[in-house]
Amino acid sequence: MSSLADFDPKPRRASVAVDVGGVIIGGGAPVVVQSMTNTDTADIDATVAQVAALFRSGSEIVRITVDRDESAAAVPKIRERLLRLGMDVPLIGDFHYIGHKLLADHPACAEALAKYRINPGNVGFKDKKDKQFADIVETAIRYNKPVRIGVNWGSLDQELLTSLMDKNQAEGFPLSAREVTREAIVQSALLSADLAEEIGLPRNRIVLSAKVSQVQDLIACYSMLAARSDHALHLGLTEAGMGSKGIVASSAAMGYVLQHGIGDTIRVSLTPEPNGDRTREVIVAQELLQVMGFRQFLPVVAACPGCGRTTSTVFQELAQNIERDLRKNMPVWREKYPGVEALNVAVMGCIVNGPGESKHADIGISLPGTGETPAAPVFIDGKKALTLRGPKIAEEFEALVIDYIEKRFGQGQAAAE
C-alpha cells in the first residue's frame, strides 16, 4: 500500500540555467510564470498597457508578437515606456517567417528584447531554413540574447515528419502515427538546439519547448525531452481553449510533468472571452504552481463549497471579497509585508468543519449555518480569539485580517522583535 510520502513531487530535473533579462529559467530556480500579449505590437499604447497589466498580475516574462516592420520598430519604444513606469519586465520577441530580416533591419528591436523565440517549423523553408535560422542565432550571439526554440505541432517541420513516417513504414510500422509525430516534435527541438550550439550559441542561452494541444501528447513529449537533454524547458499546452476546459487541460498536463520534476517556466494559454481579461492566464499559472507547493504568490483562502447547511451567501461573499482584496493589494503588500504570501485564511460556512478548518488557518472564521446560533467564532493561530455577532460580521472579520497581517508581517512584528 502506498504512503502519502510516495506522492511527494519528484526532485527537479537538473537543467542548465538561462538568464532572461535578469530572470533565471532553469538551474534549480523557481518555476517562472510568463504570458503573451494579444495586442497589435505596433499599437504602442495598447501593448504597454497590456504588458503592464500582465506584469502587475504576476507575469515575470511577457512575450510580444514581432511580425512586421511596424511592430519591430515599436519594441524599443515599448521597452522604454515600461521602464519609465518602473517595470523592468523582460520582453520576448515572437518571430515567424521573417524574424531574421526584422532583427537585421531593426537593431534597436534586437537590443531591446530579452529573448528571441524561434519556431523551427516556419523559420524558413527548404534551402532557406537553415540559413534563416542561423541568421537569428547569430543575431542572438551578437546581442548576447537567449533563444527559445519553440516547436509547435501545428507548424511542425514537414520534411522531418515525412522522413520519420517513411522510416517507420520501411520498418514495418512499429510505431503509430501519433508516436511518430511526437518523436518528430522532440527531434525538431533537439536537432535545432544542436545546430544553434554548432553556430556558437552556448547551451545556457537555449530554452526548448514542445507545444501540443492534447494532454497526453504534452506529457509524452516533455518526458522524452527531459530524458534526452538538460536544456531548460518551457511548458505550455497550446490552443488549450476557453474557460474551464482550457484551465483543466493545462492544469492536468502541466501538473503531471511538474510533479515529475520537469519544467522550468510555464504559460497557461487560455483563449479569453471577447474583450476578456488577458491576466486570467497568469492567475491560473500562479494558482497551479501554488496549489502544487512549488511557489507562493499570495495568501491562501480556504472556503467550503457550501451545502444545505449554508443557504446564506454571507460566507461566499466574504471569501470572495477577501480573496479579491488580497490579490489586489499584493503588489504593495509584497514589499510592505515580507512573507505575507504564506498567510492562510479560512472562511467557513457552518459548524461541521468550520471550527476545525479555522484552527488550521492562521486566521479563520466559522460563520453560522442555517438554523445555527447567529455567532461566528474567530480563530487566530489555532486558538479561539473572539466571537463576532450582528450584521457587520463580514466587515469586522476583514478588519481583523488586515490587523493580523500588520502585526505578523509589518511594523507590529518589527516592534515586537
From TrEMBL:
<dbReference type="InterPro" id="IPR004588">
    <property type="entry name" value="IspG_bac-typ"/>
</dbReference>
<dbReference type="InterPro" id="IPR058578">
    <property type="entry name" value="IspG_TIM"/>
</dbReference>
<dbReference type="Pfam" id="PF04551">
    <property type="entry name" value="GcpE"/>
</dbReference>
<feature type="binding site">
    <location>
        <position position="357"/>
    </location>
    <ligand>
        <name>[4Fe-4S] cluster</name>
    </ligand>
</feature>
<feature type="binding site">
    <location>
        <position position="350"/>
    </location>
    <ligand>
        <name>[4Fe-4S] cluster</name>
    </ligand>
</feature>
<dbReference type="GO" id="GO:0141197">
    <property type="term" value="F:4-hydroxy-3-methylbut-2-enyl-diphosphate synthase activity (flavodoxin)"/>
</dbReference>
<dbReference type="InterPro" id="IPR011005">
    <property type="entry name" value="Dihydropteroate_synth-like_sf"/>
</dbReference>
<dbReference type="InterPro" id="IPR016425">
    <property type="entry name" value="IspG_bac"/>
</dbReference>
<feature type="binding site">
    <location>
        <position position="304"/>
    </location>
    <ligand>
        <name>[4Fe-4S] cluster</name>
    </ligand>
</feature>
<keyword id="KW-0414">Isoprene biosynthesis</keyword>
<feature type="domain" description="IspG TIM-barrel">
    <location>
        <begin position="17"/>
        <end position="285"/>
    </location>
</feature>
<dbReference type="GO" id="GO:0016114">
    <property type="term" value="P:terpenoid biosynthetic process"/>
</dbReference>
<dbReference type="GO" id="GO:0005506">
    <property type="term" value="F:iron ion binding"/>
</dbReference>
<keyword id="KW-0408">Iron</keyword>
<comment type="pathway">
    <text>Isoprenoid biosynthesis; isopentenyl diphosphate biosynthesis via DXP pathway; isopentenyl diphosphate from 1-deoxy-D-xylulose 5-phosphate: step 5/6.</text>
</comment>
<comment type="function">
    <text>Converts 2C-methyl-D-erythritol 2,4-cyclodiphosphate (ME-2,4cPP) into 1-hydroxy-2-methyl-2-(E)-butenyl 4-diphosphate.</text>
</comment>
<comment type="similarity">
    <text>Belongs to the IspG family.</text>
</comment>
<keyword id="KW-0560">Oxidoreductase</keyword>
<dbReference type="InterPro" id="IPR045854">
    <property type="entry name" value="NO2/SO3_Rdtase_4Fe4S_sf"/>
</dbReference>
<keyword id="KW-0479">Metal-binding</keyword>
<dbReference type="Pfam" id="PF26540">
    <property type="entry name" value="GcpE_C"/>
</dbReference>
<dbReference type="GO" id="GO:0046429">
    <property type="term" value="F:4-hydroxy-3-methylbut-2-en-1-yl diphosphate synthase activity (ferredoxin)"/>
</dbReference>
<protein>
    <recommendedName>
        <fullName>4-hydroxy-3-methylbut-2-en-1-yl diphosphate synthase (flavodoxin)</fullName>
        <ecNumber>1.17.7.3</ecNumber>
    </recommendedName>
</protein>
<keyword id="KW-0004">4Fe-4S</keyword>
<dbReference type="GO" id="GO:0051539">
    <property type="term" value="F:4 iron, 4 sulfur cluster binding"/>
</dbReference>
<keyword id="KW-0411">Iron-sulfur</keyword>
<feature type="binding site">
    <location>
        <position position="307"/>
    </location>
    <ligand>
        <name>[4Fe-4S] cluster</name>
    </ligand>
</feature>
<feature type="domain" description="IspG C-terminal">
    <location>
        <begin position="301"/>
        <end position="401"/>
    </location>
</feature>
<dbReference type="GO" id="GO:0019288">
    <property type="term" value="P:isopentenyl diphosphate biosynthetic process, methylerythritol 4-phosphate pathway"/>
</dbReference>
<dbReference type="InterPro" id="IPR058579">
    <property type="entry name" value="IspG_C"/>
</dbReference>
